[in-house]
Amino acid sequence: MRNIVVTGASRGFGLAIAAALARAGERVIAVARSETAELRAAADAAAREQRGAIEFRRFDLADTGGIGELAGALRKEFGPLFGLVNNAGLGSGGQLTLMKDADVEQLLRVNLLAAMVLSKYALRSMMLERAGRIVNMSSIVSATGYTGLAAYAATKAGLIGFTRSLAREVGALGITVNAIAPGFAETDMTRGLDAAQREQIARRSALKRLITPRDVAGAVEFLMSAAAANITGITLTVDAGGTA
After folding, report:
1. pLDDT for res 20
2. 154-164: per-residue pLDDT in tens?
3. SS (H, E, C) 106-149
4. What is the DSSP string of 11-40?
5. Cα 20 to Cα 43: distance, rounded to the nearest angstrom
6. Distances from the Cα of 145 to the Cα of 61, 76, 121, 243, angstroms
7. For 129-145, how does the pLDDT look when each residue is reduced to its tens digit (9 = 90+)?
8. Phi, psi at residue 114, to the nearest 5°?
9. Which of 18, 107, 124, 155 could be disulfide-bonded to 9 (CB atoms 3.0-4.6 Å)?
10. Has this prediction a pTM greater than 0.70?
11. Which residues of 19-98 form beta strands (DSSP E)?
């Protein structure tokens, strides 16, 4: 059973990813600020099915100074880390000129800096094993833009540049690094959109619908699988054809 860390695993994409990986037989170390009833239910389901497992560990990734200690503790408790899914992120938006400086800094810290620092420490375990997978959760707005999401889009675009360069740094050691760019989905982060906005987004997509967290989870499961062993440095778009 391989160890895969999934951040922001208590809800939305992270919860779906944790459940899918557990069903695939992986041990998921679910990192989030708090444990939700939905995450507990997913962990109970994994235990009943006796295929994979979900282990919750509480941590606030805004505390970037504590990430090294977290990574060391996880490796000591569970053994070598095979995978890391940098999914945790803040979805707060607003016109840049009206945002507080502290809010912009928090977006950068949680969405980008935390992913980079956690990758740094997880890689030390992967390099010793000469194997590993990192998946960074970006967004289509990193390429398309969206009104009121300038700071958010900047953090997601940063993850794509990070992904491409890191893939080259660690590829010779058998470690792959990829990104996923989801489109708009029915998650807590898009609850701020009204019905008309969601309908407009769906109409513009090739498939005339929004994606679901399960769609993104399937993409992560693939990138963690043996079938994706020679895929690295790419950004996989999952958006129902919204950017086609």
Report:
1. 98
2. 999 999 999 99
3. HHHHHHHHHHHHHHHHHHHHHHHHCCEEEEEECCCHHHHCCCCC
4. SHHHHHHHHHHHHTT-EEEEEESS--HHHH
5. 11
6. 25, 41, 31, 11
7. 999 999 999 999 888 87
8. -60, -40
9. 18
10. yes
11. 27-32, 53-58, 83-86
